[in-house]
Amino acid sequence: MGKGFFISKAVGIAAIIVGAGALATIIALSVVYSQEKAKNNDNVLPTDGGTTSKPPVTTTAPSNEPWDKYRLPKSLVPDHYNVTLWPRLKQNLTTGLFIFTGQSTVEFVCAEETDLILIHSNKLNYTKRENNHLASLTSLGGVKAPSIKSSWLQQVTQYLVLQLDGKLMKDHRYHLHTDFTGELADDLGGFYRSEYMEDGVKKVVATTQMQPTDARKAFPCFDEPAMKAIFHITLIHDLGTVALSNGHDVQKTVFQPTEKMSTYLLAFIVSDFSFINNTIDGVLIRIFARTPAIAAGQGDYALNKTGPILKFFEKYYNSSYPLPKSDQIALPDFNAGAMENWGLITYRETALLYDETFSSNSNKQRIATIIAHELAHMWFGNLVTLRWWNDLWLNEGFASYVEYLGAHEAEPEWNVKDLIVLSDVHRVFAVDALASSHPLSSKEEDIQKPAQISELFDAISYSKGASVLRMLSDFLTEKVFTMGLRTYLAEFAFGNAGYTDLWSHLQMAVDATGTDIPETVSNIMNTWVLQMGFPVVTVNTSTGIISQKHFLLDPDSEVTTPSIYKCVDGLSYFPPLRTINLYVFIISGSDWVLANINVVGYYRVNYDQGNWERLLGVLSTNHVAIPVINRAQLVDDAFNLARAKIISTVLALRTTKYLNKEREYMPWESAVGNLDFFYLMFDRSEVYGPMQDYLRNQVTPLFTHYKSLTDNWKNVPVGHMDQYNQVNAISLACRTGLRECQNLTNQWFNQWMETKLNPIHPNLRSTVYCNAIAAGGAKEWEFAWSQFKNASIAIEADKLRYALACTKQPWLLNRYLEYTLDPNMIRKQDATSTIVYIANNVIGQSLAWDFVRARWSYIFTQYGGGSFSFSNLVNGVTERFSTEYELQQLKQFKEDNAEVGFGSGTLAVDQSIERTIANIKWIAENKQNVLDWFKAEEKP
Ligand SMILES: *[C@@H]1O[C@H](CO)[C@@H](O)[C@H](O)[C@H]1NC(C)=O
Ligand SMILES: *[C@@H]1O[C@H](CO)[C@@H](O)[C@H](O)[C@H]1NC(C)=O
Ligand SMILES: *[C@@H]1O[C@H](CO)[C@@H](O)[C@H](O)[C@H]1NC(C)=O
Ligand SMILES: *[C@@H]1O[C@H](CO)[C@@H](O)[C@H](O)[C@H]1NC(C)=O
Ligand SMILES: *[C@@H]1O[C@H](CO)[C@@H](O)[C@H](O)[C@H]1NC(C)=O
Ligand SMILES: [Zn+2]
Questions:
Q1: Cα(349) to centroid of ligand 6, in Å?
Q2: What are the backbone angles phi and psi of residue 593, rounded to the nearest 5°?
Q3: How far apart are CA 293 and CA 443, in angstroms?
Q4: For the Aminopeptidase N-like N-terminal domain, which residue ranges apply (predicted)?
């Protein structure tokens, strides 16, 4: 899936309840649970919701039956499926439901004799077949299939279970037939529906999101990535959307059989969307979206870029695109950013549709990189699939690395490859520096339940995966890296592999080319993959000694996660020091030394005080002597080393003094990101005023620079990075209260309200809207809300949705919070991020926290089915926490909701507690110093 949005799934109790009687089930279960606890028994939870037929044998002991295990037995191997699905895009007014019906036949081979068939199935109702069973079985090749003895649905583990009265025979083939009905719900998972308005008419789309474990919600299937098969899909759908008078005029679309593929990559969609198309070297490329969006040319950019990116990856992988067509579709409701279904990639509208009048350069970059990310998966992930979800990091980390290569191909002027440092390396450093982090690789047996799988779609898998693969590609050289990659793809095409298979192929390439590396690929990579965290490398220029240790944001925190990594030579925690030359690329000036050039290595760097002083000297006299990425890195390292108490906070603040001369985006972005932490910690304290004064002085020259560069804000800067930094200039100038900036944004916004013609350039809209709404009252808010509701492109709606959270009026914020749980106001896909926006606002912080606390069990049960990212939510609303009182509230929250659970946010709750403790300590130790420093800087 595309990064940036992580899905979360129904988990724990939420997964047990189905349909009606939900509330009663929750209550019943919690009663059972508390009784169990009271008896101080072993905490056995009922393993079945009890809403459908039960297994024939009832037992109270923890059952160890095959159907209680989350992993399929190895006895049956699917060959192909014939599936017909009929989604009804009209609500049944009697039941109030949208449904789909389906028939499926799967042909499987028996690999080990067995009298049991387990096949995944979730939330499907079956029509009874022969002898009242939920399925029927036939055999091929003349022998008679055993008859079905009993059949039932095992809800917790999501199986259709069939017990047979005789054995299936090894190497024989069988057909399993089913007829079923499912709900076409608006839950963003499995086969679901998306709704939108067009010309005043509500339209319904039936679409899918299978990854990771929701194909079983569309039809019964062996829903594991290694159970590859061929799928013959038939869809039944209405002809056109016009109301017809005499019943349904239906049409049947039969699709060519797929290649051999995993269930999680399937997709089927019924809509009345339009498309534009192209053909490149025989591959048909189509972009689908709502008809008005296509008519307005919003798919053109994606169509223009898809061909070149596809060609780039064919070359990169040395493998032609495996399918005859590549469809990409923008959906009004979609939970992740995008999903790499093989040949039918699904996107949020904001991730695919571009419109020059509405889209910023950042929107455009996102489209180019997400397309590249998803197309990269067509080979890496789809053609060759990881055997099990514990290796997800390799799939997502790889796509998150090469997405920059593909985007660079599409937009060579942008220097987009540099941005991996800000968007992935820095982003994940923040998480991976916590004691509650986790290694990239997990043990297969630790990843079993759907919620455990969902939890893997996190910053570690995406961004750390991308960071260490970039490092690997760099030290092997791209030539050797792609050589290994190509033979890996060739060997495992249409099959499955594990990450060690990639290491073997890279090793073969190393051996074939005689590349000199100090250890095997596998030994080197194990240190990064099998243990969590990353090192801080200290370069002591006075002694010449280079040393390293595990970098922990809170040096007092205790790492309890067991490491899978066994240190080979007992020398050190991270890469053996004798291989350090691989990672510590050093350049130096006359008297200073700088390590980790372009931040290729996945580690932070510290120096002796003397070298730090000399680096600060270079920054203030001739900052361009240091590469721009490293200027960003010096700031980021210094601030984080200070948070970990390795250097003083004052030293970190001093890295920002040269910024009044800096014009480049990356160092500013890095500084703004780190200063955000200061805002979070101090925007409710007396440090705030002096900090604002200092930063206003620092940013004013940048603001003035852009004012003249753009001829008093009339033009757009030429460079991509310059366009980004213009946004920083305005955001920070307005945030720090530069009057000229505030007047500018208010004046633009007022002009818009009065003339109804928007004069604001798309690049600047988010920040201008936000500042104007913050400065204004109900009138500005209501205007923006009406613009939000009427926006014709999601990219514009998203900017407004963000800015609406900037108001300083508590009543408006509270009302906005209420809207987030009303899908008519805020789409479910946007609920989490809207709440987090509100929490980012200093006025909204406590309102959002109270809201989430008060509604937790409601949110969890109502939105548990995929539309809420619980970890983003928990991290987002607790980010500012830095007092004892807030820590107590957080612990209380954890305790109060222990029974409801936190699902995919479980780890985030612990991370938030850890972060709050660290913040409390940090403030106690730093507040006075920081205040004194800002005050001293204010004085001329
Ligand atoms: C609506 O559902 C009811 C109950 O399942 C069913 O009897 C009826 O035929 C359905 N109506 C339509 C129009 O499909
Ligand atoms: C699926 O359909 C194909 C083509 O009609 C047919 O050859 C095959 O036998 C069918 N397989 C099953 C399992 O029904
Ligand atoms: C499936 O069956 C349950 C229990 O009878 C019912 O509540 C639910 O509405 C059914 N779902 C569909 C899609 O028919
Ligand atoms: C685009 O699609 C239309 C209609 O399906 C077709 O006639 C045309 O040849 C296609 N164009 C390209 C360039 O593939
Ligand atoms: C797409 O490419 C065409 C032809 O090169 C060009 O005229 C058009 O401006 C491009 N559209 C976008 C949105 O990039
Ligand atoms: Zn992905």
A1: 17
A2: -130, 140
A3: 45
A4: 77-265
The pLDDT value recorded for residue 866 is: 57
DSSP structure class, residue 356: T
The angle that helices 521-529 and 499-513 make with each other, rounded to 10 degrees, is 140
Q: How many residues does the chain have?
A: 940
Task: Say which amino acid occupies 90.
Answer: K
Considering only CA atoms, which residue is closest to atom 4 of ligand 4? 277
Q: Does domain 273-359 have CATH number 3.30.2010.30?
A: yes
Average pLDDT over residues 601-622: 94
CB of 857 closer than 6 A to ligand 2? no
Distance CA 764, CA 795 (A): 13
Report whether pLDDT(585) > 80.
no
Element counts in the chain: helices (H) and strands (E) = 30, 24
Say if residue 589's pLDDT is above 80.
no
**Would the CB of 127 count as within 6 Å of ligand 5?**
no
Q: Where are the beta strands (DSSP E) in 114-220?
A: 114-120, 124-126, 136-139, 148-154, 159-168, 173-183, 190-198, 201-209
Q: Which fold has domain 1-271?
A: Immunoglobulin-like (2.60.40)
In whole angstroms, what is the distance from residue 804 CA to residue 780 CA?
9
For domain 809-940, the question of CATH label 1.25.50.20 is answered with yes
**Per-residue DSSP letters for 727-750?**
HHHHHHHHHTT-HHHHHHHHHHHH
CATH classification code of 390-526:
1.10.390.10
Q: Which is the closest atom of ligand 4 to the Cα of 278?
A: 13
273-359 and 534-655 in the same fold: no
Selecting from 3.40.190.10, 3.40.50.300, 2.60.40.1910, 2.40.70.10, what CATH number does the domain 534-655 have?
A: 2.60.40.1910
Choice from 86, 95, 98, 181 to test ligand 1 binding pocket (greatest atom count within 8 A of CB)? 95
Which amino acid is located at 334 in the chain? Answer: F
DSSP string for residues in 879-934: TT--SHHHHHHHHHHHHHTTTT--GGGHHHHHHHHHHHHHHHHHHHHHHHHHHHHH
Residues 134-163 pLDDT 10s? 999 999 988 899 999 999 999 999 999 999
| Rounded distance from Cα 101 to ligand 2 centre (Å) | 19
CA distance 599 to 98: 51
Spatial neighbors of 631 by CB under 8 A, at least 6 apart, are 619, 623, 662, 664, 666, 667
The CA-based diameter of the chain, rounded to the nearest angstrom, is 95
pTM for this predicted structure: 0.90
d(CA 616, CA 642): 15
Per the annotation, the verdict on 938 as an active-site residue is no
Domain ranges of the chain: 1-271, 273-359, 390-526, 534-655, 809-940
List, in order, residues 6 or more apart from 794 with CB less than 8 Å away.
332, 348, 349, 350, 353
Centre of ligand 1 from the C-alpha of residue 641, in Å: 64
Nearest atom in ligand 3 to 182's CA: 13
Return binding residues: 373, 377, 396
d(CA 533, CA 550): 7
For residue range 324-357, list pLDDT tens digits in order: 999 999 999 888 889 999 999 999 999 999 999 9
For the Cβ of 79 lying below 6 angstroms from any atom of ligand 2, the answer is: no
Q: How far away, in angstroms, is 127 Cα from ligand 6 center?
A: 36
Q: Is the pLDDT of residue 566 over 60?
A: no
Q: H/E element holding 496? A: strand 495-497
* pLDDT classification of 562: cutoffs 50, 70, 90: low
